[in-house]
């Protein structure tokens, strides 16, 4: 095995040709329906971004950061903005499904592409299992509001079941039968929508987005009448470090725009529409998140917001329970739309990996009638639905966020080494080149000066292994920052991709070390599969 074979790359022309041919099992199966336009892509981005974050994890972030959590949404949006611009450049140059996986195949080579594809599987699958279980909780609350309820053994799991639930559950061979039926059924429904076609999925996503935006705007307007400005002081009660404690919870809310790029082959004009859809959805969601954070922290003191349903909670505190119920309805719709977009995105990444020979051929089979990756969609439904039926998972924001940030870093880095395009006849988005030769080192020097105390604390080895082992990711970040500053100075690197890489890497350092370890184990499993199957079955390998 040569090192060159691990970094073999697919050319842009080969990737686009494969997509046009609709390859699966070596025969022409036809392409996918090209029905998505800017408004549809924007709606899909909003559908994925406005979900569990605004209805759940924003409470945890507000508890740590106070009103200053609004700054964290700005920081995260800017970070995602850098990445979104890099995604937009790739999407316009490589208008095929696969997202960061495909982009990495073009720039870094096969091994990096497999690693990022495997990381995206973690992001989509685990994230959707957690969202499905979260949806079940909201749905059960809705049933309770109209005087209905499911037996506890049909809406629970073994880990959280009470002795009363276990006693009431039917027993099969002496084992209590306890399942989370709502979580399983919503995955089944969403998988069906994703299976029968992008047209149906588009209509459903557009409807759900319109509904939940109306509800959120209503909540913002009504909530501002109940704001007590005294609750906004102090603005950062736990300092800037307290604001950053919510980074994974906040970033989890933004990862959805990545899923938009997986639908490239179903866009009417991907070169023009994909970049607009990603950027528009990011801007709209950021404004809504900032306004919601001000409403939440203004209606009740920040230290009361460590709850699972912060939006509903604050209106209960001001004696408006009917609005709490309206929010619960919107939460069910919001999490359904997140499930739908992610269930659409996951099979299309597998489809791209299968086309390249890294996964079995069946994963790239396109349904002759519905024009969707049918087998991959079914497998996605099984892998999400079965665990959601039995497991007790909270929203694994840290683990999902670390995989997404890793993908963003590779996309930003890929833009730096993407071959320059000759003059194109197709009008498309192009990332503006800003010479980072002096700007990048200058920004680093300013930040070091402003945050010298915090940096020295992290670089200090005081406290022994138990303390500084948690700063290992930060030490790596410092080395990467020095390297990128040097290359910016000597090679005049483009500013936006460099800032995207550094900001994403820094956010990764704010995620606990244990999640880095779990993520590393996941990558090790993926590499084992790659060397046992994908390396030898790769189309580039067979051509060689």
From TrEMBL:
Pfam families: AA_permease_2, AA_permease_C
GO CC aspect terms: membrane
UniProtKB keywords: Membrane, Transmembrane, Transmembrane helix, Transport
Membrane topology of this protein: Multi-pass membrane protein
Places the protein is found: Membrane
Domain (Cationic amino acid transporter C-terminal): residue spans on this chain: 495-538
InterPro entries in alphabetical order: AA/rel_permease1, CAT_C
Superkingdom, taxonomy of origin: Bacteria
Gene Ontology molecular function terms on file: amino acid transmembrane transporter activity
Transmembrane segments: 41-59, 71-90, 111-135, 172-195, 207-227, 239-257, 278-302, 322-345, 375-395, 401-419, 431-452, 472-489, 496-513, 519-536
The name this protein goes by in its record: Amino acid transporter
């Amino acid at each position: 095995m040569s090192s060159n074979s691990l970094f073999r790359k697919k050319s842009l022309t080969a990737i686009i040709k494969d997509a046009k041919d609709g390859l699966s099992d070596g025969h022409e199966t036809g392409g996918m329906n090209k029905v998505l336009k800017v408004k549809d892509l924007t709606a899909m981005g909003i559908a994925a971004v406005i979900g569990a974050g605004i209805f759940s994890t924003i409470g945890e972030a507000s508890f740590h950061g106070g009103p200053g959590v609004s700054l964290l949404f700005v920081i995260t949006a800017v970070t995602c903005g850098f990445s979104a611009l890099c995604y937009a450049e790739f999407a316009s140059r490589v208008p095929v499904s696969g997202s960061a996986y495909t982009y990495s195949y073009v720039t870094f080579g096969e091994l990096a592409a497999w690693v990022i594809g495997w990381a995206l599987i973690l992001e989509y699958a685990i994230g959707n299992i957690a969202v499905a279980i979260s949806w079940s909780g909201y749905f059960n609350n809705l049933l309770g509001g109209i005087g209905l309820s499911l037996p506890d053994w049909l809406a629970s799991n073994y880990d959280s079941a009470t002795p009363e639930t276990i006693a009431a559950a039917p027993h099969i061979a002496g084992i209590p039968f306890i399942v989370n039926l709502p979580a399983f059924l919503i995955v089944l429904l969403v998988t069906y929508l994703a299976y029968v076609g992008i047209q149906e999925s588009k209509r459903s996503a557009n409807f759900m987005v319109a509904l939940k935006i109306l509800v959120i705007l209503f909540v913002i307007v009504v909530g501002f009448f109940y704001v007590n400005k005294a609750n906004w002081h102090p603005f950062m009660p736990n300092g800037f470090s307290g604001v950053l404690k919510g980074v994974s919870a906040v970033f989890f809310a933004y990862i959805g725009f990545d899923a938009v790029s997986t639908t490239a082959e179903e866009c009417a004009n991907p070169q023009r529409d994909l970049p607009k859809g990603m950027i528009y959805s990011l801007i709209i969601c950021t404004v809504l998140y900032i306004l919601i954070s001000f409403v939440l922290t203004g209606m009740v003191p920040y230290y009361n917001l460590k709850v699972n349903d912060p939006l509903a909670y604050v209106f209960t505190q001001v004696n408006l329970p009917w609005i709490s119920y309206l929010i619960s309805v919107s939460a069910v719709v919001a999490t359904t739309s997140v499930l739908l977009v992610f269930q659409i995105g996951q099979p299309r990444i597998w489809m791209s990996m299968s086309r390249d020979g890294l996964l079995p051929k069946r994963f790239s089979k396109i349904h002759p009638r519905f024009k969707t990756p049918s087998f991959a969609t079914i497998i996605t439904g099984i892998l999400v639905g079965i665990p959601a039926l039995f497991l007790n998972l909270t929203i694994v924001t840290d683990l999902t966020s670390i995989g997404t940030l890793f993908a963003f870093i590779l996309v930003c880095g890929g833009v730096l080494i993407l071959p320059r395009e000759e003059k194109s006849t197709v009008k498309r988005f192009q990332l503006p080149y800003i010479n980072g030769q002096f700007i990048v080192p200058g920004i680093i020097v300013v930040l070091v000066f402003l945050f010298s105390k915090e940096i020295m604390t992290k670089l200090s080895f005081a406290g022994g292994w138990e303390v500084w082992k948690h700063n290992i990711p930060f030490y790596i970040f410092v080395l990467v920052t020095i390297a990128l500053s040097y290359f910016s100075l000597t090679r005049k690197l483009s500013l936006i991709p460099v800032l995207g890489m550094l900001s994403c890497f820094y956010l990764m350092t704010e995620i606990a070390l244990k999640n880095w370890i779990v993520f590393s184990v996941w990558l090790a499993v993926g590499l084992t599969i790659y060397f046992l199957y994908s390396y030898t079955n790769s189309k580039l390998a067979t051509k060689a």
